[in-house]
Amino acid sequence: MILNSPLSQRGQTASQSVLRIDFEAYFEAIKNLYHPTENPNGTFPLNVAENKLSWPMLRSHIEHLTCEHDIPDWVANYTNSTGSPSFREKVASFYSEFLTHCEVNPEHLALSAGATSVIDLTSWILGEPGDVAVFPSPCYPVYKQDIQNKSGMERYDLITHHNIEDLANGPLLNIKHLEAALKDIESQGKRFRLLVITNPDNPTGGMYSQSKLNGFSDWCISHNIHLIVNEIYSLSLINTQHPELKDDYPTPTSFYSFANIMQQRQSEYLHHWYALSKDFGASGFRVGMVYSLNKTFLEAYNNLNGPSMVSNYTQWMFELVFSDEDFIEKYIQNNQKLLTENYLTVIKALRELQVSYAPARGSLFVWLDLSEFLKENTQELETELWNDLYKQTGILLTPGNGFGHTQHGQFRLVHSCFPQKELEVAMKRFVQFVENKRKA
Ligand SMILES: Cc1ncc(COP(=O)(O)O)c(C=O)c1O
């Protein structure tokens, strides 16, 4: 710590803690983006979890709606800190109809500026500094900062497997893993406070079955551990019955929303996160939600959410979007079709190369294994490979670093950043890179 610093100790630490190690390369890459005619040698940043495939459809609908309707007066004023009552009602009907498939009481919902704010505030309310939040590995890297920066909670990466092939039938987390983590955390004199599951998962795209979710819920409740399921990718589903994909899915698993279990259990230890950032490709609008039946949690949330409120204009706009259920239905179907086409484009290239991947049932990702190119299982060699791929092909993947996995050389590819024809160009470059590397 620098004495007499104009910053607090917290501020000094924050000034040294980068949000993401791949952001610098990302901001460089987007200055030179691929374009089929204007920049055919440009880059393909496939590292940030954005869905750009369905924005044209959503944009024209938003443009139409905002031209057709006058802005109501309430938009210019303050509203409830957890979201305007009318928008929360629309969100609740959207949940019931499309997401959770069970009735949701708008009073049990709170909205903040994106899932990041929701995660930050949830952990602040539920955990003490030094408490532990457990994530089955590999897992979305930024959870670490979200639960740590303000709340001071620690991230614990729970290892359930080493090889990517082990994920062929979906996520492996079971009660034995949880028991072992609990023992390990308690032996360090710490408290296992939260279990966070992302369903469908980031980065593997795996999906948790209803029976697994039931088991985790009962185990967490019996140990006074909060279980949070983040369903931020729940409408971004891959068509696992597609003729060219179905062999990857020997066991059927359909998406089952955790909200149903919450309503059956009525426990103050179960919570649910969502946001419009991924399924609606609307990360820039900053709309995130927490759903909980814990009254005191919601009261605390209401008292703390002031700095993270969603702008009323955005709430009004999405209220209009959610009022048109026919549009939402078509949007979801079309989005899933586009996601499946892009996913298949990547899978075809990986199959041709015999590069292993985790079969995804949802999300925007392919989690793939290039560890054959690492002479040793080290972070340094993985970073070298990641840079090498970017320098030679312009393709920027999300490096495995930060996902908390033991096997280096595994990367996340976001397949929804470019339209399918353009993604094909990226995959041609990728195939060439792997083939050259194997020949070398
Ligand atoms: C699992 C998960 N949670 C939260 C977020 C952050 O979402 P938001 O942009 O709504 O803050 C992401 C973004 O990649 C994510 O993958």
Describe the 3D structure:
With 440 residues, the chain is α/β, with parallel strands linked by helices. The chain folds into 2 domains: 9-56 and 329-439, Aspartate Aminotransferase, domain 1 (Alpha-Beta Complex); 72-324, 3-Layer(aba) Sandwich (Aspartate Aminotransferase, domain 2), CATH 3.40.640. Helix content is 41%, strand content 12%. The protein is built from 14 helices and 11 strands. It has helices at residues 9-15, 23-29, 55-68, 85-99, 114-126, 143-148, 175-187, 210-222, 258-265, 295-304, 312-323, 325-353, 379-393, 420-439; strands at 44-45, 109-112, 132-136, 154-158, 192-198, 226-230, 270-275, 288-292, 365-369, 395-396, 410-414. The strands form 3 sheets. A 7-stranded mixed beta sheet has the order 2-8-7-6-5-3-4, sandwiched between helices. Helix 3 (55-68) crosses helix 11 (312-323) and helix 4 (85-99) packs across helix 11. The longest helix is centred in the last third of the chain and has 29 residues, at 325-353. It is globular and about 60 Å long. The structure holds pyridoxal-5'-phosphate (PLP). The site of pyridoxal-5'-phosphate has 13 residues, from helix 5.
